[in-house]
Amino acid sequence: QLQLVQSGGGLVQAGGSLRLSCLVSIPTFRNYALGWFRQVPGKEREFVAAIDNGYMTDYAGSVKGRFSISRDNAKNTVYLQMNNLKPDDTAVYYCKVASTISDVKGTRFGSWGQGTQVTVSS
Fold first, then answer.
1. What is the pLDDT of residue 2?
2. Disulfide-capable partner of 109 in 3, 8, 54, 103 (CB 3.0 to 4.6 Å)?
3. 78-91, pLDDT tens digit by residue?
């Protein structure tokens, strides 16, 4: 059964850093694309970053230059390194796995992690 288990997150001051991890229990992990999204109450879940099976990455404009997505195929894990955090980055962050980056960014396909809270204080 496919499972995505997230870890990391928490409370940090503005300008600080956090790293999120997402362990994906799928035997062919290296073939899949992975992504991170975030959601605040009352708003739609928004795309943050994605990485495909060839290590090509894509970022939302609001996090480009501050966040970095990476993957470790040996550990079936995707990471989101978040630097220079801002209060506007406060949200619940979700990881997602799908066949392609297009599917990761889309709404029809893919599986989600359980979400983890990131709070950035000013």
1. 87
2. 103
3. 999 999 999 999 99
DSSP line for 55-75: --EEE-TTTTTTEEEEEETTT
For residue 10, list its beta bridge partners: 118
Could you tell me if 119 and 91 are in contact, meaning their C-beta atoms sit under 8 angstroms apart?
no
Fill in the DSSP letter of residue 40.
-
Residue 98 near residue 78 (C-beta atoms within 8 A): no
Question: Which amino acid, residue 60?
Answer: A
**Residue 11 and residue 71: Cα distance in Å, rounded?**
24
CB-based burial, 16-39: b 16+ in 10 Å, e otherwise:
eebebbbbbeeeebeebbbbbbbe
